[in-house]
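Reader question, answered in our methods column.
A reader sent in the components of a multi-part assembly and asked whether the whole thing could be modeled at once rather than chain by chain. We filled in our standard form and ran it. Here is what they sent:
COMPLEX SIZE: three components
ENTRIES:
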Amino acid sequence: MNSRRQFLKISSLSAAGVIFGGGIFNAFAENLVKTNPSLFKGPFDFTRTPTYCEVCFWKCAGWVYKDENGRIKKIIGNNDDPNCNGRFCPRGTGGVGMYNDEDRLKTPLIRTEERGKQTFREATWDEAFDYIAKKLKKVKEEHGPESLALFSHGSGGKYFGKVLKGLGSNNITAPSYAQCRGPREVAFIATYGQGINSPENTDIRDTKCLVLIGSHIGENMHNGQVQEMSDAIDKGATIITVDPRFSTAASKSKFWLPIKPATDMALLLTWVNVIINEELYDKKYVEKYCYGFDQLKEHVQQYTPEWAYGVTTLKPQQIRETARAMANAAPAVIVHPGRHVTWYGDDTQRLRAVAILNALLGSWGRRGGYYNPEKAVVPHFKIPKFPKPNKSWREALGGKYKLADLALASGLCDASMPTPELGHQIKAWIVNGTNLINTLPNQAKTLKAIQELDLIAVVDTMPMEITGYADVVLPECTYLERYDSLRVSQGREPSIALRMPAVEPKYNTKPAYWMARELAKKLDLLDYFPFEKLEDEIDWELQQVGTSLEEMQRIGVKRIKREYDDLYFAKDEDIEFNTNTGKIELYSTSLADEGFEPMPVFVQHPEPQEGFYRLIYGRAPMHTFSRTANNPNLTDLMDENTVWVNPKVAKEWDLKNDQYVYLENQDGIVSDFSIKVRVTERIRFDSVYMVHGFGHTDKRMKRCFGKGASDTQLITNVMMDPIMGGTGMRGNFVTFRFDKS
Amino acid sequence: MRYAMAIDTKKCVGCSDCVVACQTENDVPIGFCRDWVVEVMDGTYPQLELEIRSERCNHCENSPCVRCCPTGASHYNEGGVVLVEKNKCIGCSACITSCPYDARFVHPEGYVDKCTFCLHRVKKGMQPACVAVCPTKCMYFGDLDNPRSEVSMILEKRKWKTLIPEAGTKPHLYFLI
Amino acid sequence: MHEEIIVSGRNNPLIDPQLHIWHWEIPLYLFLGGLAAGVLFFAALYTIRGRENDYRTAVKIAPFVAPIALVIGLIALFLDLHHKLYFWRLYTTIRLDSPMSWGAWTLMLVTPISMLWCALHIKELFPKWDWKFDIIKDVLAFFEKNKKVLAWIMLISSAVLGIYTGILFSAFNARPLWNTSILGPLFLASGLSAGSAITIWLSKDHAERKRFAQLDLIIIGIELFLIIHMFMGFLASTQVQIDAANLFLGGEYTAPFWIFVVILGMIVPAILEILELRKYKIPVVIPVVLVLFGSLMLRFIISYAGQVSRWLY
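And here is the structure of the entire assembly that came back:
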């Protein structure tokens, strides 16, 4: 829209034109073209630099293109990259908005008043590091090195991890474990002796049958998987989707099972029952590789389709039909393990059922099932050994969750509260690139833990909520403005990818490597950072694998040939699995040893009371959790979330489309902001759905402040997974409120 | 030569990557878009159907926008691609009202802007930005007059529809159903 | 349930969520254009028929409204342009397919003619007017001599202008409400009605006023007939046109259309004019203002409602 000023400008010019006539006008128009080349010139001739994306964990490699003025113009996938095959997702394409966001953190900040109040003063980097170093030393002296913790999501964690380890702590954690994929890893390790990791080793490209349980590929833009699902659709694969919501994936499915929420375990066990009793399982595979089939067979006899009907509301015929569809496709079938699986507290067991189902169908290690991923081996420069921690993160968990293979973010948060019986309290946090306020369930608890700390330093690019609680805020430059360690991801074919700066850091922002090294200087830990510049270390590493920084700057991605041809199991190959029995454990000896059920059992979970609806949350393809919520390119696509309500429910509450309501959960927590109603048949009558990552409360993020509601705020009932400490978050129920008070 | 695009509604997941890729490729200002994604859902739970379409200018063979343009700024370019020549456009908006697909808008600079099928890329042998970026590879672009082009072959093989054929515009955007 | 949504956040200004690209400028311009066309049409008509002296106001006075209306209309039209610097592009090409182009060229013709006509009759308003330059006097003398030819040109071009104001809309098949050929004659009739109203207002001559009141009654009758016809056409057509008609038959534009355009703009002034013809004393300004108001509202409502009406897909 023309502003008034613009209008005046134009009309005065045209008045001049009327006097001088058309000829002058033409000349004038051409002059306008000349003086504003950026407005009129076609998009040609760019220089490009390689990067890998930091908008989500998929880390697709691509090219950053600049225009003739050196301005970042676009980011395009690298054709040689196995993670993206030259095609970025909307968030990656819109990553340029992260760089352009004018609300970015611009300079180091030091708190002047109590935590949670936005009272900061601008500081120099030196002051900021001094402050942190002094506090870290003090906490270490007073409480021991085990009282230091690092919460991290993203590339910078590695460097701050070195600082922490150098100080003698290994309390290093990412919320992507206990709040997301942890149960999956534990379940698959318990079954196959090997986790799934990222990117998932699912061979979707060649599958004949893909089973998605609550997994909404297509709405979660896990790039490689979305691409391969599309390939599978092209090849006519059968897709079976289990979801109380008619997800995008469900709309692409041959079978959509609109299951009653929280009863997935019943369906999985019933499928196992049908596959065993109808002798649909891969007999040779099971006999050769699996342990505990007979116990399993006996165990699942109770779970008949007729029983499951009453529990899941899915018709027995539907359950049998889908089980047969899977068996028909076997072994090219994937019962997908999902990614965010911390739902009901029995998640490790549910994922065990998924793992078992895959084993019965013989899909692990088979084409169209799960391939054997490989990672490039890149040697690291030898640095001195880190001191051995007196107490590891396991101690912080108080002896619980022994099967967790990584530290629990929620556990370390809990250990930051006064816990005399533990004899161990975490007193200082470094938080890198993760907005714990919106990531950890039970916000009140997180905030309480923060108030108990002696130090909280936050590294981020955006003024996320967590920065409001920080004592020191370190503004990181975005991934487009820095080097980071090489991306070495697993895949069918190992690959390495380079990230290098396309432009100089904007404002007074710095890369995490530089920050960590400066901090290390003040803590006398410089030995762990032998290279002054990260690019020198990268170059050294690249030389070891027969390439160089110079070459990688030109190609961005290097594919490396697999060492062995073992993508799939060879025919009748003898395999030693990394489990106690050396076999795929249908009956888990490690779970039995720890006193847990060796085979999954169905447990009834609580249901919503009258007038309440189960809160189901998920992803939108154009956002990554809450971190993209203020990205100008991506808010342009979606600037708030909506609450999906079944028309029956809408009628009962007299809700109209686009009406704003507040949500209140079972514990009386009311959402900070109102959320727009979307009346749609796509959600079950006993549930509501919303996209995670909205309802931001920090005013410094102007585009997303107060837009939509935060699901995290409403997740106060956390169902802990006793096996590995996952935080089940789908046991929360909400109702509608028309005003806040 | 008749350029056309086919979009597979069975594969499109509605991620809107096409929209962002177009915006960055063509310097479309934030707040404006030359392409967009429509979701159409029909039915009653649990008997539901969903169609997802990435839409843009249909580059109609019988374009009302070209017809009604008083200055000839809207015109057919190479391969029947409908373009706006901004130095001829007076911003009268007649083309905007004439488009049954609402595919045009007024650029903040004053002229009318729309999808160009990324003709600047196509001329160099590349695909339009939206087609090239699509993670689901649900878009096909090419020359209808060439029976071996990707778009001709997919239209041969699959069932398709166009939008508002009854408006008589002969659109060049095909939706595989 | 049917749910159709744009999920990519499209929000193009003036297009979304509902087309509203044309504001007050276009309907005002269409009204003024129609008004000018009506005035000039009658002036030309009675000149050709040699009745200049019977209908002095229509031929010699009322046309002074036309250039003023046209200039204001042109300013409104110019304000509506978003790329104003380039407006001259209109006159570097003739595009027969484009109603906008037709309009631009018609105005290019009608505006000078209307000014010329006024120049010829300026002494009617300002008896002491002196052109000062001989060349002007010579030119005017030439046209004075060929006034009938000029009148013919004016008759045709003003009819084109009057019809064009309706065609501009009806050429857009993207907007079902506009996509009816009745809009052309309807807008022409409305323009003639406004033109005759202006004449009634300005005229001091009883016979002339009576004549134009009769004319206006006939035109209003035609307008009502066209409106009924238009809705019959819509209702017998496709769903999109039924939906378009329903904007006026229970939809959001029902009250403004029927109250302002039909009742206040046509029926009430018609009744008042009948009463006046039957020798009741009616202040002349009331029916005149009502007719002009109705004519203006017709343009506004058709313009706004038309932008709301759309195809389904």
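What stands out: The first strand of chain A starts at residue 47 and ends at 52. Chain A has four domains: 4-40, 109-178+382-479+508-531, 198-372+568-593, 613-737.
Send us your own complexes using the same form.
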